[in-house]
């Protein structure tokens, strides 16, 4: 059992609406019952329903508090500006993101400030200055960080590299998560941190972390990936990460994107803020705006009623 849902308990019987699961039939074993004695018919929530219900939740980061919708709009406004920046400024943001481990937000922003202070040009990105920057930023993995920053500089300062062409290639190949990316060849750089770096410049990329995955899993949205043999709830495994990446792309398209819907990057940000604010390790279900349609909340409610 993980996050209130057991994949093994999902029966293969379900009704469909188009290619999307509409109703699932779930085994809910209670003490003293045999598996299969009780069957619950649970409607799988739709992504637009979830997004509409969480958009007014107020979330805070670095002392700034505003609605998730405001955070989303702020993200969209900064994307084109970020890509128009000077090459060294793009590097400072991109390299800082490649180093992110816990996705805490505050440490990432602070690290960018330190990089911008020390790395005024690529000539400043030396071993000595990088060690200084990582120390000042209190980075927990200095040797690994040094290796990543210097390797990223080597790629970016090569004669054939241009940020414009790099982002364009990434956006052409976003569906398979741009697996041919040179940055993925850097030791210690995995899909999550590379995707986080790209998501700062393109709304086609998402950085699946604990906050994002638990919202998709607990609400039941991950069942929209049911039928994929790679289905899993473990984002830390490479194949699991790629499954959840594909799931967010699918959910994005179900909202109407590309068009008037929500891009993968927007959903990623919205889930991240919601996961930090309401759907935490110990979720605030009593204050949750999606509790009425959340699969985990409804299952918990059903179990409580059964016990009475």
Q: How are the secondary structure elements laid out?
A:
Blueprint: E1 10-17, E2 20-27, E3 39-43, H1 47-54, E4 58-61, E5 64-67, H2 68-83, H3 87-98, H4 106-118, H5 127-136, H6 142-156, H7 163-172, H8 191-199, H9 210-219, H10 238-254, H11 264-277, H12 295-307
Antiparallel strand pairs: 1-2, 2-3, 4-5
Helix pairs in contact: 2-11, 3-4, 3-6, 3-8, 4-5, 5-6, 9-11
Would you write up a description of this structure?
The chain starts with 9 loop residues before the first strand and ends with a helix. It contains twelve helices and five strands. α2 packs across α11 (264-277), α3 packs antiparallel against α6 (142-156) and α9 (210-219) crosses α11 (264-277). By secondary structure, it is mainly α. The protein has a domain at 67-199: Orthogonal Bundle (Endonuclease III, domain 1), CATH 1.10.340. The strands form two sheets. It has a three-stranded antiparallel sheet, with no helix packed on it. A two-stranded antiparallel ribbon has the order 4-5.
* β-strand amount: 5-15%
The global form is: globular
The first-level CATH class of the domain at 67-199 is given as Mainly Alpha
> Secondary-structure element order, as H and E?
EEEHEEHHHHHHHHHHH
Average pLDDT rating: 85
The total count of strands amounts to 5
Which stretches are low in confidence, meaning pLDDT under 50 for 5 or more residues running?
1-39, 304-308
* CATH fold annotation of the domain at 67-199: Endonuclease III, domain 1
Structural class: mainly alpha
Number of helices: 12
- How far from one another are the termini? 23 Å
Reading side by side through the largest sheet, how are the strands ordered?
Answer: 1-2-3
